[in-house]
Amino acid sequence: MIWAPEMETMPRKELQLLQLRRLQQVVQRAYERVPFTRQRLDQAGVRPEHIKTLDDLGRLPFTRKSDFRDTYPFGLLTVPASQLARIHASSGTTGKPTVVGYTSSDLRVWAEVCARCLASSGAQPGDVFQNAYGYGLFTGGLGMHYGAELMGLVVVPVSGGNTERQIMLLQDFGAKIIACTPSYALTLAEALDARGIRPGSLPLRYGVLGAEPWTEAMRDEIERKLGITAVNIYGLSEVIGPGVSNECIEEQNGAHIFEDHFLAEVINPRTEKAVEFGEVGELVFTTLTKEALPVIRYCTGDIASLDPNPCRCGRTFVRMSRIMGRTDDMLIIRGVNVYPTQVEAALVGVAELSPHYQLVVTRQRTLDELDVSIEVNEGFTKHLGGTFTGEEAEVQELTTRCQQKLLGVLGITARVTLVPPGKLPRSEGGKLRRVVDQRKL
Ligand code: DLL
Questions:
Q1: For a disulfide at 208, which of 121, 234, 260, 374, Cβ 3.0-4.6 Å?
Q2: CB under 8 Å, gap of 24 or more: what pairs does 386-392 form?
Q3: What is the CA radius of gyration of the chain?
Q4: Whose CA is nearest to atom 4 of ligand 1?
């Protein structure tokens, strides 16, 4: 279902007028109230009244993660901290977290976009919704919680982790829709399997999965193992949290960006110029309705492309591709750009393997080495008589096959290690870190 049809199916021309009006207001507000932003605009020689068309967006300076760090904790707010209704924070790469604040009006907008996400993921008012995103400073849990309440779902606020209890609640409360990270969805699938619970025996039908990168191959695994339709939800704290975009169940092919609230651009991160629709680059967002913390041209570090083609679901909002990687988790190995998701796309789905893998990058003197560990599945272990040691001819053959696949996709040779089922780290409820770059340590 479409939660807000008057917005989500608005003709593009009308939408652009709305966006322009909101953009003008937001730039004005930030310029008047945030000394940091005023200084940035002054330096760039732009004043709010210069924004006459949507194309003038390109004249505004970018905002970056480092700007949050430099103004920690409240320097980017348009209101005194005493006027906030809530504060969230996400872990920064170094030391201090990235802090984001919301007024009560912001919380209403946030609930609205999260309600839209749930509706486009298959939820109907009255459905039981198991919310397995972490509650707390992380935006996932509370963001989805209020969206779900707004749309009339029956919320089970279980938060992340505690798989035993998750399963009991899935069985006893009969959630039809679940929200969690894709890696945690796999953890749940495995736990159900280990207890001999057939997914078909549960009322669970839909998954709203995101907060970390995943691939189509991973979607296939999750859908098959949990017996659900899984869609991708995207968002980030600096822009609002979950609810920036969400796939529709009709197409499951790109997440509609809620463009009445968030203006999207894709730029080439080197030249900082906008790229064409369909071309891959860095996602940049400008918030159009946020009060406490409007962000202007926030460079997300997330790599994706935009698709303006009409969608079967009827929404007129552009769709963004999956996040193909990040400008900063992009590994450069022997001069070649490598994204962990490329490894996932190459190996997940190989019949003998399970979807659990880890990348370790090391440097022997001057040469970078990429080690990819991936688990074989139970079937393969059984086929070897249950004694997986890594030395059999079949193991050698499979290793070589994986190496060749990786070479084909990455263009570099990786060392592949097949490991027995259950040996690699699992998501314990939140985002899973799949890359260990020992070159930096
Ligand atoms: O992860 C918000 C969120 C919660 C999104 C629940 C979806 C569901 P942060 O902790 O600030 O916020 O992390 C934001 O996570 O810049 C991306 O790199 C990554 N990310 C979020 N969603 C996706 C996704 C939340 N669907 C950062 N695919 C973003 C790939 C994602 N990466």
A1: 121
A2: 388/418, 388/420, 390/417, 390/418, 390/419
A3: 23
A4: 140
Burial grade of 23 (CB within 10 A; 0-12, 13-18, 19 or more): buried
Q: For 214-243, how does the pLDDT look when each residue is reduced to its tens digit (9 = 90+)?
A: 999 999 999 999 999 999 999 999 999 999
Query: What's the rounded Cα separation, in Å, for the pair 268 and 201?
Result: 47
- Beta-strand relationship, 415-419 and 241-247: unpaired
Q: Which residue intervals of the chain bear CATH 3.40.50.12780? A: 5-328
Let me know if domain 336-437 sits in CATH 3.30.300.30.
Answer: yes
What digits encode the pLDDT tens for the residues 38-71?
999 999 999 999 999 999 999 999 999 999 999 9
Cα 130 from Cα 120, distance rounded (Å): 16
Q: Which atom of ligand 1 is nearest to the CA of 237?
A: 11
pLDDT tens-digit map of 290-338: 999 999 999 999 999 999 999 999 999 999 999 998 888 778 888 787 8
Q: Where are the beta strands (DSSP E) in 271-352?
A: 281-287, 298-304, 306-307, 319-320, 325-326, 331-333, 336-338
* Interval between CA 144 and ligand 1 midpoint (Å): 13
**How confident is the model over 196-216, as pLDDT tens digits?**
999 999 999 999 999 988 999
Q: Which tokens in the block code for residue 315?
A: 């929404």
Token duo for residue 410: 């990455």
Residue with CA closest to ligand 1 atom 6: 140
Residue 92 pLDDT level (bands cut at 50, 70, 90):
low
CATH 3.30.300.30 positions along the chain are 336-437
Is 403:414 a contact under the CB 8 Å cutoff?
yes
264's CB contacts (< 8 A; 6+ apart) are 257, 283, 284, 285, 306, 318, 320
Are 275 and 38 within 8 A, CB to CB?
no
Closest residue by Cα to atom 15, ligand 1, is: 211
Q: Which residues pair with residue 129 across a beta bridge?
A: 155, 177
> Does the structural domain 5-328 have CATH classification 3.30.160.20?
no
- Residue 4, token pair as written in the block: 């807000």
Give the distance from CA 176 to its chain's centroid.
22
Distance between CA atoms of 184 and 214, rounded to whole angstroms?
12
The residue to mutate among 114, 137, 209, 323, having the most atoms of ligand 1 within 8 angstroms of its beta carbon, is: 323
